[in-house]
Amino acid sequence: MNPFRIALGVLAIGVVAWLGFELAGGPSRDGGTSSTPMTFATSADCRQCHAEVYDEWAMSEHANAWTGPEVRLLSMDFANQDCIDCHAPSPVFQSGIGERVRPRNVRQVEGVDCITCHLLPDGGVAGTRSDPRAACRPVARAELSSAEHCAGCHNQHGTVDQWRASRFAAQGVGCIDCHMPHRGGDPSRGRSHASPGGTDIELVRGAIALRGGAQDGVWYVEVENIGAGHSFPTDERSRAADLFWRPQAAQDDAPLPWRHLARLRDPYRTEVDVPTTLLAAHETRRYEVRSGPSDPHRHTLAPVGDPVQGPIEVALFYKRSPYYADPAAPDPEREARLVHRIVLAP
Amino acid sequence: MTPRTSHSFGRWLGAILCLLAGAAACTPEPESEPERSAPVLAPVALDAIALIEARLADARATALPSSTPPIPPAELVRRMEGLMGFATGSGGRARDAGVTDLVDSPAEASAWLRARALDEDAREAERYLCLEVLERRGGQDDAEALMAIAERARPAGLRAGAYWRLGRMGEDAVLARLTLRLKYETDWEAVLWLGWALCQHGIYSGLDGVLAVANSAPDRDLAERATAEAQALADEIGAGDAYQLANGWWRGELPAGAVPRVRSLEYQLELWRWIARFDEFQLRGVDDARFLLARLDGVAADVLGAALFDASPYVRLGAVQCLERMGPRAHSAGPLLLEHLDDPELGPWVASALGRIQYTPAKEALEQRLQPGTAPALEVAAARALGHLGLAEAVPALLAALKNVDAGQRPELHQAIAESLVWCGAPAFALEALVAALTDPRLEPSTSSAALRHHLARQAAASVPGAQDVLTEFDALKAQRPPAAAPGSAAPTRGGAAPREIEAARAALLRNYFDSANPLDSAPVTK
Which of A101, A143, A104, A151 is nearest to A126 (CA)? Predict the structure, then answer.
């Protein structure tokens, strides 16, 4: 036989074998092989292929769930072990979609990580689409984008139920539409894993409206939940929003101290005498501005005292820890974040 | 069903039946290593609840009928109002006679007394008299009424009174709910009598409340009263002081008779109802259940041991977590825990619990889980658990494991082994790794920090030069205030610096100390 033909035949067989291997999911784009899909011991493993996603997540509150200073403080460095369930959860697919998550005892510093949401009980990876050629071999699982996927943790304080009761649920606007938006608004670029929420003050500003006016000689303030698909604030009970007011200072005078008007918050379960004052989705609440005292830690519902005369400033502040250093003289500009500020003048 | 699984299946059932019978020693004999077949699971909690409820129903059905005919509600109210007015408006023997009539009122009177005590518009004298009458009546319904008052009454003085009287009653059915009040009670005086009441029933977790008042109450008189009560509690059972008493309770080493080993069916029913709550979705009830069950007695440990065989993974996990939080007081659950060590999900928590309850017969099993082929999470947990056991005999296995582990690939396992070497009295090969762990972003630093502090304290106790100064500085770093938050930031408003900053400062301190003092060459420090 012609040696050239023999060589050609060998080459052809090789090409066919290579093609078959490739089509069957052969050497993957990043060096994995079809017979040995990657296994995942840490979320850092995911970075090899998903650097953009990983970097977004690494800056998110999900990544901070174990290491963030607020949670360290409020959980007493997790001496309160009850916090671990949601701050270092086992994979959601392992607990079951919509079921309560269970805690894990390793990699706790990674908080709510890639593995939490994407790892399947069989060691595979859930994705938005199946790709047998990728190193992790993602399998399409529609549950990933459902509210139930978030519910194991985020319905512990009723957030998902608040959403279910809102018009957004009926309209098909889900958790990921606000909290995992398409990058740059472009669906082809995938969804951001930065998971903006209460720490994104612009997101908060877009969700809440503040306005005011006068009726029968009394200033009033209205706060409206125009965009949050759940109550404001929501989720962790440590979160609080406070309305403050103060007489508007003359042009050259220093501003007067802020005076507390009302608080929006779901109290800790130990705060048995403190009412829940969350602002439900689509709800508008009106407060009269009166001169009487109000304690932010007591969630005053009905302002008391005489009507306030003259121009005033009103501001809505947001906090992730419910405490002010001095409840009798809170300093929201230092201890909280400004959401909205308005001036009411006759 | 194989003979082995039959044996396993029978363990929880046997435990329940044994508890129902009121036997004091229901737990199986210790075993160093269980057989490898998986335990058989069943709806243990729900079955136990049904079983106990049926027993209680039988007991009620066979009880002698009341000798007094039922009174119409309107007649009862009229009579109670009259007696209450008479008793509170009288003195001396007349008052005593009125109170006696109230005490002897029919069973339905308990609900009336509870409602009156909770009525904020009622006269204060009447409300407090209700507490006295309920105590003297002394039945289970009366204890339930006092418990409801303890949970809801305002002002707090009424709650304090209800706690005190519950401590004087013999009913144990409300002890679980009473223990939960340690989490929610906010009034200093009420906390004192709540803690005292629990101690009267042999639940010395209540001592935490008494000591909290003694150490922190702003009212000096109340703090002194709490100190005296704590000492009296210690004297009653021959402990030197309240802290020795607390330590004895934690270690399960109080004298015989100090803690009842037999509790009522109603008490056990309450435990099972709380255990069943582990299966709820909302963590609120789960957290409450974990809180109170972990603070109860050896009977609770036995019940939790039986719950390890529940079909619900949430119930099993909750039971393990409570046993772990109980500490050595739950030592009796060790053999049952060992059966679950290889459970793919529960195993790591079981390992941790075995260490925390100081179940030393588990040493060999834990060492075996350091061998290659063990699930990573179980391997880490086993390494940590050996540290909790603190046995010098575990050092060879830990050193072998340390030699085999790749710190770059398995940093968490490397850290766990190093920490355990310190706790087991062999710090020489661990210190460098632990100092590095303080600043490794892949690792939780606080556990390494605790191990290093333990080493420093041992060195200071052994008068190693410079150790005490470093220990003092090490502790002082924790108390540093954080830098002032930037205006408008959402930084926390209380507490110290972020843990990472503290641990980084500690790492620098220790590197400097180790470089200068060369503590690795110092006298060996043993546990």
Answer: A143
In the predicted model, is pLDDT for residue B510 greater than 60?
yes
- Cα torsion B2, B6, B7, B13 to 10°: value is 170
Contacts of A303 (CB under 8 A, 6+ apart): A261, A262, A287, A288, A289, A290, A292, A294
Q: Which residues of A touch B (CB under 8 A)?
A: 41-42, 44, 66-67, 69-70, 72-74, 77, 81-82, 85-86, 90, 94, 99-100, 102, 104-109, 155-156, 199, 269-270, 272, 318-321, 323-325, 333-338
pLDDT at A16 over 70: no
pLDDT band at A75 (very low <50, low <70, confident <90, very high): confident
Residue of B nearest to A330 (CA): B493
Of A104, A109, A272, the CB nearest to B377: A104
What are the strands of the beta sheet with A337-344, ordered from one edge?
A: A259-264, A240-247, A312-319, A337-344
Establish how many alpha carbons lie within 13 A of residue B261's alpha carbon, considering only the half-sphere containing its beta carbon. Answer: 15
Report pTM.
0.88
State the pLDDT confidence band at A265, using cuts at 50, 70 and 90: very high
Which of left, alpha, beta for A8 (phi over 0: left; psi -120 to 50: alpha)?
A: alpha
Residue A62 structure tokens: 């999900």
Chain B residues with beta carbon closer than 8 angstroms to that of A199: 490
- Nearest CA to CA, how far is A96 from chain B (Å)? 12
Tell which B residues from 381 to 400 touch A, by Cβ distance under 8 Å.
Answer: 381
Average pLDDT over residues A62-77: 89
Q: Which two tokens stand for residue B12?
A: 């929880």
Q: Residue A32: which pLDDT band, with cuts at 50, 70 and 90? A: very low
At residue A291, the 3 state secondary structure works out as: coil
